[in-house]
Amino acid sequence: MKGQIMSYPLTTNAILEYGNRVFPDQSIISHLPNKTRHQYTFADLYKRCKKLSNALVNTFGVKPGDMIGTFAWNHYQHVELYYAIPGAAAICHTINIRLSEQQIEFIINNSEDKIIFVDASIAPMLEKMASLLVTVEHFVIINASDGFTTTLPNTIQYEDLLKEVSDDFEWIVVDENDACAMCYTSGTTGQPKGALYSHRSTYLHALSIMSPNAGCYDANDTILLIVPQFHVMAWGFPYMCLLAGAAMVLPSLNLQADAIIEMLINEKINKANGVPTIWLGVYEALKKNPPKEKLALQEYLVGGSALPQSLIEGFERDFGVRGVHAWGMTETSPLGSISRLQPKHKKLSVEAQLKIRAKQGIEIPGVELRVVQEDGTIAPRDGKTVGELEIKGAWVIDSYYKTTSREKFSDDGWFKTGDVSTIDADGFMEITDRTKDLIKSGGEWISSVALEIAIMAHDKVMEAAVIAIPNKKWVERPLAGVVLRDKDKKVTPEELIAFLSKNFAKYQIPEHYVFLDEIPKTSVGKFNKKEMRRLYAEGKLSRST
User: Fold this and answer.
1) Which band of pLDDT confidence, cut at 50, 70 and 90, is reported for residue 472?
2) Is 506 tagged catalytic?
3) How confident is the model at residue 348 (pLDDT cuts 50, 70, 90)?
4) What beta strand segments (E) does 158-208 contain?
5) Among this protein's residues, is 327 annotated catalytic?
């Protein structure tokens, strides 16, 4: 017997209608690529989304299921695309602008984008490959200045497109299980793979981010969205903010530490997100030039790679700002877990609490986590037994776009993350490494992530990345790439070895160190260990021993 409940499709259209109906006066603030500031309301967003959906259907002839690409920074026009494209029953494909030319060409052709909306400042990147993009019929230019020219074919400027149509438009009816958005993985191994999200998964993901034990957002919040809109739909925040009634601040390409600090102060931002490397830079800049008044910022949510315990501690001690650790992947939309203390932890020491907060945290409502050992058995939740992390849930993909491979899925349907993890008795998950980044030395496994976090706790170190290098005797040994906080304040390998020896066995500690100006980063700001391994193999990473 089924319940007697109305059928109410969970769609992105329903999210936009709710935001317009309940929070019409809430703000979306954009710091645009040309350094100007733009502000309007959720009600303005709603009207312009209606116009844009109208233009897609009646000017361009977009049909349900068509793929529409975006190649753009974080700003209000990109938020409009998040809603207007699905509003036309099409699929919003956010293209990662930091991928290689070959990868960008591949994913545009693989997804069969019909139209691409592109920021004028990065249009030259597409000009180089325009002749190779076989399915693209039109390019729409966003934020073009006077006198802008491009060699892209069949172009129209964004505002000119909207001038031609009215906001009298009915959303094209969709099923909640229809696709609304697609993101590709960063392609660190092989070509990028497409993750196709549904309206339902997007709606439920946004609700879960908003919930108290997860992001804990509401209409009193002003949130800085540092995570790029071209990366996993900005972690779902543009959808969540409309449900929560939270104001959005969008920085476009203004991601330097000083620019972020200026926005934090001037816009009175109380919450933000971003990868750890961004917050390391902000923290260092604040230490060098402390603000005259206490920041309104209460907390920042971090994902993408491990949030060092030293950064959590330092930011809170020096500026009263909480770091909140989360975990997810493109394949999980992305949020899967978040680390907030539970009531039982309040009686623990500050040091013990920090160790818990540095974990990736508990699964959020809507997903399940498990750790699977090499023999295929489920690991006990004891905080010690390691294995590969697997996940299933309401916004986890069940296959990749245009592929039939089941390599990343277990026989009973769980997604294999490739993360080596533990889960403790309280349900807190901790990633100890990626399977491909583990170091096997003399038959013993060494966690590169644990070493990185420990090295970054040294007061002279800003960043550290650890890779395996060949060794005749031990097969592999760890090499640490280190970026100093201050180039004038040196640290020797011997000092780092002594520092690590307090918490690591001798065989786990790197003997090899290379001091770098910066550590290579991936397109989404993670340490690029693949690039470090390549540089080492080519003899371009000299080492100190």
Assistant:
1) confident
2) no
3) very high
4) 179-184, 194-198
5) no
